[in-house]
Design a protein that fits this description.
The protein is α+β, with helices and mostly antiparallel strands. 35% of the residues lie in helices and 23% in strands. Helix 9 packs across helix 12. Pfam families: Fasciclin.
Length: 330
């Protein structure tokens, strides 16, 4: 890593000398505006570990390009923690390790937009896509919230925002943003808390699959999950008991397990690939309408796919939020 850092610093000095030389050309009185790329901004903020990782994965040239780029740049301490946790050595990466580190770094980059902290705060919370890829080369999603500072995927917080560059913007974050799993997005979005509770309840019995472990496993799948919203679960409980006296925890784990299987499909099916007709879930067949954007369970109950919450892409599958819980044949 020392060799990488030394070479990167020499490269920076060389680029700086070239800049001064071009500005002092006696044959041309036109002053060329200084170019400060997102790489330069990272170096100005002493993010040497990020710089070393970018060089080790051949991403320096990419981020010196036209952009625009939004970069969430981890601190040196954040990178040290990552290397300690994973045992990776930037000076001695295997081909597979280099690909992994490169994808992790790209998970900190939004290409084609300069997203300021004000943009994020005004949006409140939501999803965007990073340059990292998952199954079928689909770009991974990034979930942001702003109720207590800008937080990414529920763990990484922006500590120094809006460092501008000529080809984008850099926000410094206190933790490396790992490649998200389905569990990442289920547990970080409060609108899916009932789904998480249902997965845990099913796991307490004898589940068809160990749900929490499976959706948390980056090497599992990929799967497509039709994720009922909290309101969808609330409506189901009233459907089952109009008196309103039944809570999710009152249901038998086996019952919840049978229900959940109708929301999981093998393979990574984004909304653009949703068929018009039969979809085979782990529990049985449901019917999709890719024009009306609906799913129909075996009881002819129709659920709308929430168009603003589709294609939430993780490393082990994709999530589409729906507004009604699908049920097995009654």
């Amino acid at each position: 890593m020392k060799i990488i850092l030394k070479n990167f610093k020499l490269l920076s000095v060389f680029l700086l000398v070239i800049g001064f030389t071009s500005c002092s050309d006696d044959d041309d009185n036109v002053t060329t505006p200084a170019t400060t790329t997102v790489i330069d901004v990272a170096l100005e903020n002493n993010l040497t570990s990020l710089a070393a990782a970018l060089q080790a994965t051949d991403l320096v040239t990419t981020l010196q390009g036209e952009g625009p780029f939004t970069v969430f740049a981890p601190t040196n301490d954040a990178f040290t923690q990552l290397l300690n946790d994973t045992g990776l050595d930037l000076d001695n990466l295997s081909t597979a390790e280099e690909a992994l580190v490169k994808n992790i770094l790209l998970n900190h980059v939004i290409i084609g937009a300069t997203v300021t902290s004000t943009d994020l705060v005004n949006a409140g919370s939501g999803y965007t896509n990073t340059a990292a890829t998952g199954p079928n080369e689909a770009n991974l999603s990034l979930y942001y919230t702003t109720s207590n500072g800008v937080m990414l995927n529920g763990s990484s917080t922006v500590t120094n925002a809006d460092n501008t560059a000529t080809n984008g913007i850099v926000h410094i974050v206190d933790e490396v943003i790992g490649l998200p799993t389905i569990a990442t997005f289920a547990t970080t979005n409060p609108a899916l808390s009932n789904l998480v509770a249902a997965l845990q309840l099913a796991d307490s019995g004898t589940p068809t699959v160990p749900y929490i472990a499976t959706v948390s496993d980056a090497t599992a799948g990929p799967f497509t999950v039709f994720a009922p919203s909290n309101d969808a679960f609330a409506d189901l409980l009233l459907e089952l008991d109009p008196s309103g006296n039944t809570a999710l925890g009152d249901l038998a784990p086996a019952t919840v397990d049978a229900v959940l299987t109708y929301h999981i499909v093998s393979g990574n099916v984004q909304s653009s690939g949703l068929p018009n007709g039969t979809v085979t879930t782990l529990g049985g067949n449901i019917t999709a309408d890719n024009t009306a954007f609906t799913l129909t369970d075996p009881n002819a109950r129709v659920s709308n796919i929430v168009t603003s919450l589709v294609d939430i892409q993780s490393i082990n599958g994709v999530v589409h939020v729906i507004d009604k819980v699908l049920l097995p044949m009654q």
